[in-house]
Amino acid sequence: MPGYDPPVLRASAVLLVPLVLLALPALGQTVPDGFAVQTLALGLDTPVAIEFLPDGRVLFAEQLTGLVRVFREGAGVQTAPVLAVPGVAAGGERGLLGIAVDPRFPTRPYLYVHYTVATPRHIRIARFTLAGDLTGTGDVNLTADPASRYDLIDDIVDVADNHNGGTVRFAVDGLLYASLGEDGSYCRAQDTTALGGVVLRLDASKLPPGPGRAFRAQITPFDNPFVSRPDSNARLVAVLGLRNPFRIQPDRVRNWLVIGDPGEGTREELDVVALRLPTPRPALPEMGADFGWPFFEGTFGPAHGECGPVPPGLAGPAFEYDRTAQLGGAAIIAAGAYWPRPSGSYDWPAAYSGNLFANDYYSGALYRLVPSGSVWAPAPPVAGQPAPGTWGAGFTGVSDWTVGPDGAFWFCRQSIDFAANTGSIGRIVNTQPPPPPPPSSAPLSLALRVSPAIGSAILAMANATRPAVLTLHDASGRIVRTFHDGDFVTGAQGPEVHWDGRDADGRALRPGLYVAKLESAGRTATARVPFLR
After folding, report:
1. 513 and 409, same structural domain?
2. pTM of the model
């Protein structure tokens, strides 16, 4: 896996039928008091990435088989795979590495994948069209036709069998972020034209229905940091100077990007980038940041002077640790930010809101991080924590994380000691009783976080109880967008709705004055939304 040379992962000769269980005990994992690890699916073949559909089903990718499968709690894994991605090269750190669902699914029924192509060897980022049971309410299978493939990028060099990156994820801005390793070529991370050691920022919203192939201008956002460069590859780059950013995770509340970048032999680092700049500007690296590889791993360096002089203005890590100081430490996996769901049955306590998490793939340490000045540091220990500075233990082989609609922190584990068909899907749940909801007689409020709203809007609310609904109306009073309480996210001050400036069909709305209306428990609150582009 990232940044290390483990025993080579090989496709198993026999594919076992996955065992599906509900709330099994943890597989050797330890978390603090008041939390529990539940294993929901066992016997999986190298699950490497997970993504939720809006209805709560979990899509997961198998690195070695090239299959995308779907799991539903209580029903198990759909017997037939959703998609068999053709031509995947597997072995080492190659394979089917990342998946993402279009943010306007099922209106746009698209699945995006990041994988290594076997012949000729290269990395491809592509889109497939999902069909069948798109809403999770039918009796037919969820499927994707391999012939529906639409290539976003299909010419990324892949020479080494490691350092491929592997994430595709949508952020709150509606753009697709894709991570690429430097392919074992140090200096490539400092070359914005080489598409290595970088995170790409892509606009997939304007692509026609597939199949097909995009050209660079179609997928280049107008506000990318290097959009004025003459090279079309450079125009796609959001962040550079990375070694192998295998897992990146958007923070959908603060609009950050959290990047896990394994070191060469000394430091593992977690980087944080601000994707949209509020007022005042955050004390964080911004898009266009250079995190310094191959000159630095974390703050350790300089090294690899063969790549030229150290450039000025390098960005530093938000968190780092010495991999040589822990048994087997070798590859950091960004889990991202924890934010509870207002209606989540397993929501974590409020003290965890906005905390960052990361695990080490080989040592199994799970870190909980809180702000400490301009960087992040392990949170003060809590009861039942396995060791100071380590919030959880036993998370070896865990390659991806996401917060589910139930408020639990979900993860996929590729294997136990690289044994075939020992992968699993699990979650960390809060077992503490939830705080009582606010009384329905409390005043309901709704406010626009930043006015005027430019391109998108955040609407903050207080004292909303389930069921709740927020509608956006144009100047004529027509409803253009509806959000239910399952769409709400938990912000720093309470529930929020993040509106991307589009109507229910995904069309960009014109600038003008809109009105937001919140209804909950017989109460109503409204807010004016001046909207600009």
Report:
1. no
2. 0.84
